[in-house]
Amino acid sequence: MKVLKFGGSSVADAAQIKKVKDIILSDPARKFVVVSAPGKRFNSDSKVTDMLYECWEAHANGIDASPMISAVVRRFRYITDEIFADRECKLDLDALFEEFAQDVYSGKGRDHIASRGEYLCAKIIAEYMGFEFIDAKDIIFFNENGVVDAKKTSSAIRKRVFGISGVVIPGFYGAMPDGSIKTFKRGGGDITGSIVARAVRPMIYENWTDVDGFLMANPKIVDNPMVIKYLTYREMRELSYMGASVLQEESIAPAREAGISINIRNTNNPSAEGTMIVDESLLNDEEDTGAITGIAGNKNFKVITVEKEFMNEEIGFGRKVLEVLEKYEIPFEHMPSGIDTLSIVINGEALKGNVTKVMDEIKEAVNPDNVTMEDGIALIAIVGRKMVHNVGTAARILTAISKRGINVRTIDQGSDELNIIIGVYNDDFDEAIRAIYEEFAN
Questions:
Q1: C-beta neighbour count of 248 within 10 angstroms
Q2: For the residues of 275-320, what is the DSSP string, one character each?
């Protein structure tokens, strides 16, 4: 068996949904399908979920929501008019769309209205495929704290799908104990797919999107970057955290916990093998990568540098500094240090206007010789499971960057040697990534 999840770009219009059908029918193992709401058809288009939020906000603010409701219905009519042009649709579409409109007018909650994109899309695709529709609210359950009840959910999914040859399930939402709809955060369709995979334990979980797989670098920075063929869960987590946005850690956690491999595929290029995300123990030497697997990064970090002579001999020095950050709920990214210096890299947005307070309280806490804050720092993560076995990887990185005249502000390597983090100025970010990619991709 296989579980498949199709993202918003894969179901954006009728032409895309026809591709989805072809993909599903090309492999009899593809039995369990999770779908998102229709996404953008072109750059200036709107995602259906955004349109639904506008419906809810309009009604909540006493504004006539009928034009927004009509726009949503038109999006689905465009789809159904085409995919059912040459065959009967047994769904009562008028009743479905009227039910949606009444949900808005009756003041149903924000999460309920936002979930209707997935609900309607799954209903339509199930009818188009000849598969059974299963409402996510009947199989995915949150507890009172808004956390998925994994045991109850997995049991419900297994019971509900048992013996069914093909099902379509809407992503993005489930039910609270009182039966009301609760959505995941944006991108929650991926979480739903992973939850279904954990429950039914398929041979593979295919996540279909609009790229050929997990790319070695950002295609907005590097022209035609290579697709990563095999990626471990740990590597994916490192790359996702630093900005690679194909999948987020939360969205794969259920599948990872169950030891299920994930295949990232392209709906628009189904012949491409995509990227396999697997447990490291499943890889052999033939499936392994070069010295690095991928590169990712983000801009706009700040570096707080605390200087104090004999700092290394002062018990609790680092704790006192971090307690100041904790007071203002500021997480830190990295903390390189020397004998007399301690640098803390933080996300600039996390300061929330508390720069002066933080700096003053650090001074009061540890009485430093000097404390400074530097803006405009970008972090680049170079990730690879084979770095630990390759001599000179850091030297190659630094040499490639230095040849472009780029100054490295910070460098940090994890204790497991899975990644190397370097800090450069924002203005050097793109060029540094290109330099590293060209060094290792060839």
A1: 17
A2: EEEE-GGG--GGG--SS--EEEEEEEEEEEEEE-TTGGGSTTHHHH
Q: Which amino acid type is present at position 373? A: M
Gyration radius from the chain CA atoms: 25
Biggest CA pair distance of the chain: 81
CA–CA distances in Å: residue 28 to residues 192, 193, 393: 22, 18, 44
How far from 51 is each of 9, 45, 58, 115, 189, CA to CA, in Å? 15, 10, 11, 11, 17
Q: What does the alpha-carbon distance between residue 302 and residue 349 come to, in Å, rounded to a whole number? A: 9
Q: What would the two tokens of residue 399 be?
A: 């040499």
b (16+ CB within 10 A) / e for 328-353: eebebbbbbbeeebbbbbbeeebbee
Task: Name residue, tokens 């970008």.
Answer: 378
Rounded-to-integer distance, Cα 252 and Cα 231, Å: 13
- Kindly give the confidence (pLDDT) of every residue in the chain, 442 residues in length, as a single tens digit, with 9 standing for 90 and above: 999 999 999 999 999 999 999 999 999 999 999 999 999 999 999 999 999 999 999 999 999 999 999 999 999 999 999 999 999 999 999 999 999 999 999 999 999 999 999 999 999 999 999 999 999 999 999 999 999 999 999 999 999 999 999 999 999 999 999 999 999 986 778 999 999 999 999 999 999 999 999 999 999 999 999 999 999 988 888 888 787 766 777 788 899 889 999 999 999 999 999 999 998 777 765 555 678 999 999 999 999 999 999 998 899 999 999 999 999 999 998 888 888 999 999 988 888 889 999 999 999 999 999 999 999 999 999 999 888 777 888 899 999 999 999 999 888 887 677 889 999 999 999 999 999 999 998 7
